[in-house]
Hints:
Layout: H1 2-38, H2 52-88, E1 92-96, E2 102-105, H3 107-113, H4 124-127, H5 131-142, E3 147-153, E4 165-173, E5 182-188, H6 190-226, H7 235-263, E6 272-275, H8 276-286, H9 288-293, E7 297-301, E8 310-313, H10 315-331, E9 338-346, E10 349-356, H11 378-384, H12 390-400, E11 404-410, E12 414-422
Parallel strand pairs: 7-9
Antiparallel strand pairs: 1-2, 1-5, 3-4, 4-5, 6-8, 9-10, 10-12, 11-12
Helix pairs in contact: 1-2, 6-7, 7-12, 8-10, 10-12
Amino acid sequence: MQLAQIGVIVVLLLAWAAISWRGRRALDELGRGITALDEGRRTWPNRIRTGGAVGRLTALFDAVAPRLEARIERLEQERRQLRAVLSGMAEGVIAIDPRRRLVFANASADKFFGLDASAVGRLVAELVRSPQVQEAVEATLTGTGPYEGEINLPSREPGLRVPSRILAVHGTPLTGSPPQGAVLVFHDVTELRRLERMRQDFVANASHELKTPLASIKAYTETLLDWALHDENVNEKFLHRIEEQADRLNQLILDLLSLARLESGQDFYEHGPLALVPFIESCVESHRGRAEAKNLNLTVNLSPIGNDTLILADEEAIRQILDNLIDNAIKYTPEGGTVRVRGQLLDNCVAFDVTDTGIGIPRDDLPRIFERFYRADKARSRELGGTGLGLSIVKHLVLSLGGKISVDSRVGSGTRFMVKLPQFQPPLQKS
């Protein structure tokens, strides 16, 4: 009887040990599955079956794990898609937490503010040295709604004379009271603001340029009607002034119409093969009288370009380019100076430049001289006449011919404009 009892106890102990071993294995397997799910690795169904609470727990995990895995995969895919969208945006996007620390920044924000991967978790005030950005952050986090504004972002490389950028800012606080963070979107509106200023300048300048000759015509006309019409000492002189101002007004309107057609892409020139050398020489000769009247030395040297060298252009387009460049050179060169027109061949291009020994153009004005109505010396330019549209027309004509124009100038030493146009190669005739 004693031996039988001992045997029963041994059997029970062995059964308990087996059950405990299977339970421990099941719990270990369940722990590995949970760890794999937490680490984002693919989970495998638990192959160990046991009863009791452990068995029910492992069975429940086996049933839930695939659904959790699928949900995690969908969330990860959505996260990757969202990051791809944010990275592809031209606008800069940053997210901050309530402590003003950076949570996220897309590629454009990195470019705007010079951020890198180490920026996440740091204070925005440490990363972006701009009081205006800090004001936008504070206004978004402490305001009662979305924030709208604009900031001027100085260049991080002032030595390169890179202009500051203008950024429009839209800040949105996250839900909560107080907000649990904020998202700020920065849009670069520098070019838009520049175009708006150009439009405003154009309207103001066009109004002024139209008003000036009209005011002169009206003044001379009123004087003639009042008393000077029958005064032989002044009436003819006044009529000549009226004619001059009418011609100036007419030229301004013609230039405006020409520039409008060029900017709209209307092709009103008939381009064809044109021998450039004799045409340039003819244009230069047409200005020789004005140059001699100012005692200027007007020279032309086109020997590097053959007489049979062709470009594809309309004569009137080339004439406008040359007339504007040579006229400016003569106009802004003091008496006794020199105006040179030279030609050369560069790769597959025909190049000619107009160089003078005139007053020159300040370096800060060079980037804007091709803008409509822009004048480096407004008082002197109006005194010498002109519409302020010549160089803008020249640039548009050169671009319409597939060419390029550049300018070099030093104050007091003169200016050099170079025009490069594609050389025309006539098609080979079949024998």
